[in-house]
Amino acid sequence: MNLMEKNQGTYLVTDVKDDNIRALKLISSNYPHMINRIIPQAYSKEEVPLIKELGYKNIILTFYKMP
Are 38 and 14 in contact (CB under 8 A)? Predict the structure, then answer.
């Protein structure tokens, strides 16, 4: 996050393998001022609305973990 503070044009794409929603909750609550620059990955279509509820706008739906 220090890197993002110093470089306003940078974005972060998350890749949380375990407990994705919990991690994204922690990020959004600790860094709400950066939420528009954080692009979370969703590992199922069911995660997408949960991630949107946390305030994230740009979401990557990752297919490789889907059956």
Answer: yes
Q: Which pLDDT does position 64 carry in this prediction?
A: 76
Separation CA 49–CA 26 (nearest Å):
17
Q: Which of 58, 62, 6 is nearest to 37 (CA)?
A: 58
pLDDT tens across 41-65, in order?
Answer: 999 999 999 999 999 999 999 987 7
Cα gap 51→44, rounded to integer Å: 11
Q: Where are the beta strands (DSSP E) in the chain?
A: 12-13, 38-39, 41-42, 60-61
Would you tell me how many other CB atoms lie within 10 Å of the CB of residue 12?
A: 15
- Say which residue the tokens 């909750």 belong to: 25
Taking the C-alpha atoms of residue 25 and residue 61, their distance in angstroms, rounded to an integer, is: 17
